[in-house]
Specification:
Layout: E1 2-9, H1 16-32, E2 37-39, H2 54-60, H3 67-79, E3 82-89, E4 96-102, E5 108-113, E6 134-138, E7 143-148, H4 157-165, E8 170-174, H5 181-194, E9 197-201, E10 215-217, E11 233-236, E12 242-249, H6 250-259
Parallel strand pairs: 1-2, 2-3, 7-8, 8-9
Antiparallel strand pairs: 1-12, 3-4, 4-5, 6-7, 9-10, 10-11
Helix pairs in contact: 1-3, 4-5
Length: 281
């Protein structure tokens, strides 16, 4: 079984209405290209704008059940294609950086808010999420277990590790930052150490502090009948705006997960107590 993912590496518009229109057009195009899932970059509803004025920030935020979010659910059912829509979510006491994944029937399968907010920067204005979630996604030919982490989450091995332990085969990772060698290496490592695919959608060059280079690492580092390791990067987009398609061979990934030694195979969780200890101030 193959999972076809469209990375919507797009420049945002001027307001939520433009985001809705640009996003709708892109999803229609992604379906025409054969996608099973269309993924937006981080906080698409306002183009990753985080004003430091609380009142202005609250006005930009949209509710989880807002027309903006619901319209993408309706579009998922109309197109028979899953959509991962990202948005600045209304939340008390402070907004959240969130994604909702609709399946091809328009049902909400996953609602995740960024756990590791960038509190050293503009995201100090946001509330962090509380947990990492997975969901079984019907793609027609079968199901795939999907989770999500957002941008800075990738810098914490625990994010992808928890998703792996919950059964994730594919991680959807919306992004809004410059993708350079070290961040790309972190994504590759999360895929390698957990035997899963990591799909990252970034904003293109032209969006402040972004440079495209959306990627897909399929999580398969080697094959038994091949003498050398293989490049897990099956897609790295250029800097420019566009819709970029990647095909993940789920049969190959599942076979690899059955017999290889990474992931949960040889862990010693009884020795990891310090990882769950409260951080000293």
């Amino acid at each position: 079984m193959t999972l076809t993912i469209a990375l919507l590496q797009l420049l945002p518009g001027k307001d939520t209405e433009q985001q809705l229109q640009i996003g709708t057009d892109a999803c229609v195009r992604a379906k025409e290209m054969g996608a099973d899932i269309a993924l937006f970059p981080e906080m698409w509803s306002d183009g990753y704008a985080i004003p430091q004025d609380a009142a202005l920030l609250d006005r930009l935020a949209v509710a989880n059940d807002s027309d903006f979010v619901r319209r993408f659910g309706e579009l998922s059912a109309q197109l028979q294609m899953a959509i991962g829509i990202t948005f600045l979510e209304k939340h008390d006491p402070k907004p959240r950086n969130s994604i909702v994944l609709f399946d091809r029937h328009g049902e909400r399968k996953l609602h995740y808010s960024k756990v590791h907010t960038c509190d050293f920067d503009a995201e100090r204005m946001l509330s962090p999420g509380e947990d990492f979630q997975v969901a079984d996604l019907d793609i027609g030919a079968g199901t795939v277990r999907v989770g999500s982490m957002i941008c800075f989450d990738r810098e914490f091995p625990e994010s992808a590790r928890i998703l792996m332990l919950k059964g994730a085969e594919v991680i959807l990772a919306p992004n809004a930052c410059p993708m350079e060698i070290n961040r790309l290496a972190a994504l590759r490592t999360r895929a390698y150490e957990n035997k899963l695919a990591v799909v990252t959608c970034n904003y293109p060059k032209g969006q402040p502090d972004c440079n495209g280079h959306s990627t897909v690492f399929d999580g398969v580092a080697w094959l038994r009948d091949e003498p050398c390791t293989r490049d897990m990067c099956i897609l790295e987009a250029p800097e420019q705006e566009g819709i970029f398609l990647a095909k993940i061979d789920l049969d190959m990934l599942r076979e690899y997960r059955r017999h290889e030694v990474m992931g949960d195979t040889y862990r010693h969780p009884e020795k990891y107590a310090i990882l769950a200890a409260k951080r000293s101030e």
